[in-house]
Amino acid sequence: MDQGFFAGHRAAGQKEVTQCVWVYEHPVDFDGLRRFHHNLGYGLMGRRIERSALPFGRHRWVVDRWPSDIDIAECPRPRAELSDWVDERSQLPVDAERGPSWHLGVLPLADGATAVSLVASHYVVDGLGFVVAVADAILGNTRDFGYLPPGARTRLRAVLQDARQTARDVPQVARALVVASKLAREQARVRRTSDRSPPPRPVAVADSGDDRVVVPGITIYVGLQEWDARAAALGGTSNTLVAGLAVKLAEQMGRRRGSDSAVTLQLPISDRVEGDTRAVALSLARVSIDPTRVTTDLRDARAAIKEALTTLRQTPDTAAQLLWLAPWTPKPTFKRLVDAGFADPDFPVIVSNLGDLGSLVNRADGTPAEYLAGRGMRQDVTRGWLERIGGEMYLLSLRIGGKISITVRAYQPGAENTKPALRALAARTLAEFDLTGEID
Questions:
Q1: Rounded Cα–Cα distance for residues 276 and 398 (Å)
Q2: Contact assessment for residue 107 and residue 88, using Cβ atoms and an 8 Å cutoff
Q3: 424 to each of 245, 386, 416, 419, how far by Cα in Å?
Q4: Tens digits of per-residue pLDDT, 198-247?
Q5: Calpha distance 232→226 (Å, rounded)
Q6: Strand 212-213 relative to strand 381-382: parallel, antiparallel, unpaired?
Q7: For the chain, which terminal residue's Cβ has fewer other Cβ atoms within 10 angstroms, N or C?
Q8: Quick check: 327 pLDDT over 50?
Q9: Alpha carbon distance, N-terminus to C-terminus of the chain
Q10: 278: nearest Cα among 431, 132, 70, 64
Q11: Which has the higher per-residue pLDDT, 89 or 210?
Q12: Strands of 34-87, DSSP E
């Protein structure tokens, strides 16, 4: 899974990162922050990818303690520029193969507050893995995974070791080829018998070009007492209310399925276990929800999500066997597969719920920050690509410090794609749910 995710996105020119931001209204303990920074290099983030010596071999993890120091901004910036600085940090280079795979930055604010940003390559760690790495660093838990330093193997040793590993993988690869053949025949049969025509895609802006853009992102903070009370009143749970908010936002941004005007959600479900060293330890549940009733009744949405999660747990993931083909998949094939996934005709919205994080991960310097938010971001995205795939929408929620934090990243082809516009849309949507909150 890790190699397929990394190689597929690289072939398609994609770069995904995970970002966490702490905002301290009180003075930061910089000694504590430096201990945190040091410890991050001895957890799941303290590594990078070394490619196989064979063109069809498996990649491996190697040790990488990068970077050597915290990046502290020299000049304070106004509070109004905090969001811009967070975006700037999200676009600074991280490289899962060459390093650094993560970086930590600090910004003093003109009003006396301090912001801390941690960005890590998604090809080194996923959302829950990020939380595990942060918790370990705060607690001072340093881990030795037994990884070698980069380039520690001689060329001959690398070839021999990778060849032996490839030979051991042959039975799994053979089974994967059988599964691929069956799936291809099934897809061909569906195409022959289906009369469904794909919904029209948004018209791309004529001069969109290949200029690089940062997809607008905002963070919504709502008190947990108000949030949970509203979820209960609507017959849902905290996660269902996040899904309802996503559905309503998507409806207003035109992300509806052509066949029945429902909104499709993709829900990443973590299967990370104790001691797990995978970068990507999750599966995806998919559910479609009618947006017309979610602001007044979440029971249907709750039932649909529960059914989708049950199906995910009980249905064998036959396609997972195809991951054994990752080392053998040509780059052009990977690119076609990944591009097709992004250009999904149902315009899905990704909704990731990290749940209640307790109070530990809020303490990057050892003291509780007043605000914490997490999000996934893309680097080096072009406007033309966003227009071609029909835009995107992504939400991530977490509960900490008496608040629920919901980050929203969204782009709508041909629309006013700015943070003020997205904040206004979020405020209107919160009001539809009879909720109030801070929106940054």
A1: 21
A2: no
A3: 14, 22, 12, 9
A4: 444 544 444 456 888 999 999 999 999 999 999 999 999 999 999 999 99
A5: 10
A6: antiparallel
A7: N
A8: yes
A9: 35
A10: 132
A11: 89
A12: 47-50, 60-63, 71-72
Residue type, 249: L
Model pTM?
0.92
In angstroms, the CA 388 to CA 415 distance is: 14
Euclidean distance between CA atoms 249 and 255, whole angstroms: 9
Q: How many Cα neighbours within 13 Å face the side chain of 223?
A: 5
> Is the alpha carbon torsion for 361, 367, 371, 375 positive or negative?
negative
Which residue, 286, 280, 228, 354, is CA-closest to 124? 280
196 has pLDDT over 80: no
Q: For residue 411, count CB atoms less than 10 angstroms from its CB and return exposed for 0-12, middle for 13-18, buried for 19 or more.
A: buried
Q: How far is Cα of residue 27 from the mean position of the Cα atoms in its chain? A: 30
In angstroms, the CA 435 to CA 157 distance is 61
Among the three residues 160, 182, 198, which one is the final residue of a domain in this structure? 160
Q: Contact at 8 Å (CB) between 134 and 365?
A: no
Which tens digits make up the pLDDT trace of 229-238?
999 999 999 9
Domain identity same for 219 and 137: no
CATH of the domain at 96: 3.30.559.10
**Burial of 74 from C-beta contacts in 10 A (0-12 / 13-18 / 19+):** exposed
- Residues composing the chain: 440
Instruction: Flag whether pLDDT at 195 surpasses 70.
Output: no
Cα-based distances in Å from 113 to 23, 26, 364:
7, 6, 15
CA–CA separation, 122 and 124 (whole Å): 5
| CATH number of the domain bearing residue 397 | 3.30.559.30
For residue 205, what pLDDT is reported? 47
Does 429 lie in the same domain as 289? yes
Residues of the domain holding 20: 2-148+156-160
Alpha-carbon gap, residue 152 to 165, rounded angstroms? 18
Does residue 205 lie in a domain region? Answer: no
